[in-house]
Every structure is written in structure tokens, then in C-alpha cells.
Amino acid sequence: MRLVIARCSVDYEGRLKAHLPLATRLLLVKADGSVLVHSDGGSYKPLNWMSPPATLRVTAAEGAQFEEGIVEQWTVQSAKTDDRLIVNIYEQLHDSSHELGVDPGLIKDGVEADLQRLLAEQIETLGAGYTLIRREYATAIGPVDILARDANGGTVAVELKRRGDIDGVEQLTRYLELLNRDPLLAPVRGVFAAQQIKPQARVLANDRGIDCLTLDYDALRGVDDSESRLF
């Protein structure tokens, strides 16, 4: 991973346009090709980013750019669309690279682990005729919680969360992009399953053709008969 702290401006061009005026920011260049732009606030979310697969081209400023004070320009081009992220660097304050190695992935808390086990055991919660392929299906970017087949024999990737937010949908989107490159699995569709799903996450999932499923943890555990409740 490369970490660059720089005074820069950032423009996103493509399906939508966005501009970040000149300020000091942290630029993350990851081994998977993604580039993220962070400020010293706003929690963990980047101000802007380009998801992989993407290519980074760095050019020295010249002419009018140089006269404006720009010393270097980064062009991050998406490999799948015409979208691109343009970073104009006016001053570099820090530049370092670090080899992080292979990450073991997120260790789920007890409830998420239980949800995965229970849903795998009761796979027809997803729908009649579903069968389990396996839990923790390994990919190059991490394990898919559940891989299953629907009644028509289609492959389904399931991402499980206690509380489903936009980041969970983004995670499942990355898995689906990778899984759909495998001719033995494709086409693969996604199901985003959680005890609670935020409205924004549901909208994003629907926009990307991902089904949403709200899970009743107690019902899966067999300690609550949801069908016999009055309320």
C-alpha cells in the first residue's frame, strides 16, 4: 500500500461529476488497484475513490498546469467504464509504501457467525428449492459468507450482516464482480441478508440488482415462532 499526504485537488469524471477543491489530504493507493482520497475527518469513509480494477497513470505537470502550481497529475482510469479520478498534486508532504501481506479477513462476532451457520442449515429461508454449496467460499479478496444454488440451478452469493449498510452492499458487489468472471459459477446474483437493513443500503442494493433479505435471528434459532405471533 502506498500512502501519500499532499496538497491536492480532485475531480471525478464519468457517470457523475464531483470536485474537491485544493486542500491537504491522504491518498491511499492499494495493491488491488483502488485509489482512495481521505481527509482528517469524516470517520472512515473516503471523500472520493476509484474502485478496482483500475490503472494509475502519473504525469509531471507542464505548461498551464505548472504555472497554476501543479507539480504532478494522477489519472486513475476505471477498467470497466469511462469513469476516471483526476488528482492534481500541488505539494507532496509524505510518500511511503508498505507491504501488508495477505489479510486473514474479518473475524465475525458471535451473532454474525451464528447467522451464517443457521442460514446455511436452513438454506430454504432464501427460497424454496435452494441448496447450499458451501459456507465461507474463498475468493482472492476474501470469503463469501454463503454460496448457494437457487431452484433453477443459478449461483447465489450471500453477504450476511447484523446491521446492513452501504459498505456491506459494496463488499457484496466486489464479490459478485469477481465470481462472475468464473465461467463455472456465472451468472452469479447476490443476496444481502441482515437483521436490519438501512434504507440507503436497500436502495443501493436494488439499483445493483441485489436482493435484500431481513433475517429473524430468534426464529432461525427456534426460540421464537414468528408465524404464531399476533404482533
**Percent helix range:** 10-25%
For the record, the CATH class of the largest domain is Alpha Beta
**Over the alpha carbons, how many angstroms does the gyration radius reach?**
21 Å
Count the DSSP helices: 5
Strand arrangement within the widest β-sheet reads 4-3-2-1-7-6-5
Number of strands: 12
List unreliable stretches of 5+ residues.
none
> Can you tell me the overall shape?
elongated
Question: On the 0-100 scale, what is the average pLDDT?
Answer: 90
- Series of H and E elements: EEEEEHEEHEEEHEHEH
What structural class do helix, strand and pairing data support?
A: alpha+beta
Report on the architecture of this protein.
- This protein is an alpha+beta fold.
- It folds into two domains: 2-97, Protein Yojf, Chain: A (Distorted Sandwich); 110-228, Trna Endonuclease, Chain: A, domain 1, CATH 3.40.1350.
- The chain is built from five helices and twelve strands.
- It has helices at residues 64-67, 110-121, 166-179, 199-207, 217-221; strands at 2-13, 18-29, 35-38, 48-50, 54-60, 72-78, 84-97, 131-137, 144-149, 155-164, 188-197, 211-214.
- Strands 4-3-2-1-7-6-5 form a seven-stranded antiparallel β-sheet, with no helix packed on it.
- Helix 3 (166-179) packs parallel to helix 4 (199-207).
- The longest helix is centred in the C-terminal third of the chain and has 14 residues, at 166-179.
- It is elongated and about 70 Å long.
- The N and C termini lie far apart (51 Å).
- The model has no long low-confidence stretch (mean pLDDT 90).
